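Usage example:
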Amino acid sequence: MGKARMLGLATDLYQLTMAAAYLSRGKTARATFELFVRKLPEQRSYLIAAGLEQALGYVRDLSFSEEETAYLRGLPIFSKVDGGFFDYLRDFRFSGEIEAVPEGRAVFAGEPLVRVTAPLIEAQIVETFLLATINFQTLIATKATRVVEAGQGRAIIEFGARRCHSFGAALYAARAAFIGGCVGTSNVEAGFQFGIPVFGTAAHSFTLAFEQEIDAFRAFYEVFPEQTTLLLDTYDTIRAAHLATEFGSGLRGVRIDSGDLGGLAREVREILDRAGMTGTKIMASSDLNEYKIDELVRSGAPIDLFGVGTDLSTSRDVPALGGVYKLVEIMTDGQAVPKMKLSREKLTYPRRKQVWRRIGDDGRYCGDTIGLADEREIPGEPLLQQVMVEGRIVPGLPTLQEVQAVAREEMERLPLELKSLHNPASYPAIYPVSYSARLEEERRKLQHELEE
Amino acid sequence: MGKARMLGLATDLYQLTMAAAYLSRGKTARATFELFVRKLPEQRSYLIAAGLEQALGYVRDLSFSEEETAYLRGLPIFSKVDGGFFDYLRDFRFSGEIEAVPEGRAVFAGEPLVRVTAPLIEAQIVETFLLATINFQTLIATKATRVVEAGQGRAIIEFGARRCHSFGAALYAARAAFIGGCVGTSNVEAGFQFGIPVFGTAAHSFTLAFEQEIDAFRAFYEVFPEQTTLLLDTYDTIRAAHLATEFGSGLRGVRIDSGDLGGLAREVREILDRAGMTGTKIMASSDLNEYKIDELVRSGAPIDLFGVGTDLSTSRDVPALGGVYKLVEIMTDGQAVPKMKLSREKLTYPRRKQVWRRIGDDGRYCGDTIGLADEREIPGEPLLQQVMVEGRIVPGLPTLQEVQAVAREEMERLPLELKSLHNPASYPAIYPVSYSARLEEERRKLQHELEE
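Running the assembly step on the lines above writes:
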């Protein structure tokens, strides 16, 4: 991740056409954009911010190669664009400031997760990649906290690479799932790149590759003593559980991957216990999600670990987060001019903002206020912190392990009703987020001006 | 894409632990795995195969760097594994054969999309990446055909990068959407890498960045004469449409991105037509999908192009495809031994298979037979073709444009009832896929043997 990459084309075309038009009009003044989610998905009562590290790495490394600018120059749409634009791209480096909510923190609708202040063109070009990165990792980190909560302390391992939206998505799904509390991933590249613990058992094909099931079990155990988790359901789970007793208490675990997971886990537990294998763990997998895990845990199924794939790694019930990136302020003649959009249902709040969070008497969060970044009177902890100055990442970003700890603490501070797996039934269960009086006043004033 | 990449760790851990166990037992015989979808998602009546080119590129380039093998060696689980395994990885190159259904072809449940025959370890390691690649692109190409069908000839542009599962996913979403019939994408990197036509208009922020809306319109038009699509809904769509008449018939298009798209399109069309701008196109966007487009088209809304984002690029209604990769045969003592899995609801068919497709009197596909690869008596066109020999890609893979043409032809040959946007109501609307008598017999025999 260290070396500079050419990422100039990792964007939507209109970012580059707008850039050319801005440049031709000399519109190079500084502007501020904010990235936020307008409305939480119906099945989510909070979000866990994630993806900032990759977003910042992109912004820092963003540049255009000769090959990339040549490609742009050859596009029909750029045929009449002045050569000065391509010179501009050739020298392009992001020079602005970024404030952001740290990874792992809980956020709510309307709250800026990232605030970018830079010359207009620079701030505009980064939109697409920032959104793709923050939207996706936030989506998965949030989903992971739900699955982890359902596990009530049982370990959750992320398993979903094969169903992800390409292997690149799998890599970041593993990272975000770890932030959300998974103990690890099956994804080796994610282990290599991010230091996430990697886990694995065996596939049905391994059992099938041997003439007898017990031969497969022995072959694996011989190479990985103390590290073996046997997959039981290739032919018959109960029969395989009996075979597994041959290995005694040195067997780390067994995995059940089909059928009535709760019922089978009970039978398998009994077989193992009778063989004195009380320390051998039972892992369950097979299209699991927070609801199925919740049911298994509540029913007392003796399952120690859950492997969760598709539903977690694609956030199957809510597979996209609608984060947006909106212009809120622009410098004009030395003045910061507020900006907002009036489109029906897509109205935005102008001005650079900050979010303040309050803690109630029970030690849990009790409400946020979104105000103007320079307000000084708003009680609570300000969430956005400076993470980039003049295109350089501010030293001291937390490690991934630290981010996971942040998210864990957030989960403890969230009001209990927000963590219900089912959508809060009544309005008061929604976390209270309000706008400061000064911000409301600014919005009203500007809206009135614009509507004239 | 040309140079060799180290992709060894782009897999699940268990592929590598199984590899070590296979090697220690000398299990290096050739085996065949097949990639298929057990069951179509409820909202899909067919799939359009996609992703093969990236899958083959991965298999061809797959190798392990020193750094990667050192990482594996340092993992606790590999602590007792013989050094010979790491030597094996250091020299690893895929040496096998691959047969596959060409990209763009329609496929159905149970039909192998990809068949890999190689030394057991090689065939096993590639599973995760193949699945992630084929599952995702097939998912999006299929979704795209639905959106394109709904458009009834109106152009569909893929727009969804910002909501994709990381920017890497966006790149392949754009490719797959193009296969499914989109005319292009907003994703510049996808244009650069795959030669897909790129499209763009302008964002609300562009309008906001100017003091007056008309200033923004003029600035853009000046730089991109004949190529300008003005975004109308930053403040008020109808007012903006009147402003747009200033540019006359040289204005390529306008875009409406919020509100009642059909009603606004009618009003805007009238304003443009009255100004003699009958050639100026109207584009609509705003959380569109096949159902909304179908409604707009059927209602006669004068919309010429649709920009489709989130729903298309994440296949939001069906965000994951459950493709699996199963061992079907393994060489033992010079004999090809059939393999199958008995797990409840996850039973597989043994043996190397081929799919034959028949065309009915109406020129449309009327049924497929899945049989043993070496059967010679089955009528119809065999779908799987050899695409890799001894680790080398067979020359003459189609270009992306050719693949798009293949998919277009498939859509014309699919039974009409399969293309209904709503799920076929009754069982006979499901496309008929059967297994050959010889294959059924093989399965019965093997199942009987295994259950003994």
